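ok so I'm stuck.
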Amino acid sequence: MDWSLLVNAFIATVAILNPIGNVPVFLEHVENDELKVQRMVALLMALSIFIMLTMFFIFGSKILSLFGITIPAFRLAGSIILLLVGLRMLQGKSKFESNGIETASQQGNTFDRARNRLSHILVPVAMPLFIGPGSIATVILYAEKTTSFPMAVMMIFVLFLCSVLVGCALVASRYIFNKIGPNGTQIVIRFMGMILCAIAMQFMIDGIGQLLPGVLDSHFLGSLASSSAA
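replied:
not stuck anymore, here's the structure
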């Protein structure tokens, strides 16, 4: 058993999922729900993230190849979605204004309401915020390094642990932001909106750089700058 590979996979996956950093985005989407509904949504979100991570770990390369999708293309698509979410957060707009979703989410028991809410925020919160090009590329990379069935089982267990950490962070999101108050929450949400926009632009730059390597090639840019100076 390659324990160092498992530890590296755990650290890399947690880092790319960024559970603490993504808490404000999750809370912004469920801030109008009751606490018990929020917690149920958090648990369902963590379960969804685990399922998606496992699917991409097992079938990632085949899924993307089946649809003719490359990681750069997926990165560009994810960057556009994240950019739209980030701009909305910067403007302080609610996602659930006058579209009937808020009313629908108040019907039924806690699980039904949480499931209904999750269906509307799975994109963009679960994907591409948590399950984006970076996390997909990460699990596919470690899947390629997994050479035995016992190692594959342990890798899936590592993904489960990462999802549990995400769930814990999301469940505690209301407690965290109760400590800083509504104004502090709005400040953090708008700040995270700016961060999301920056992440989206970085995804876009990386995607374009992978599709058109010459655009971001340091030697190419250096020679261009030299010619301009001359």
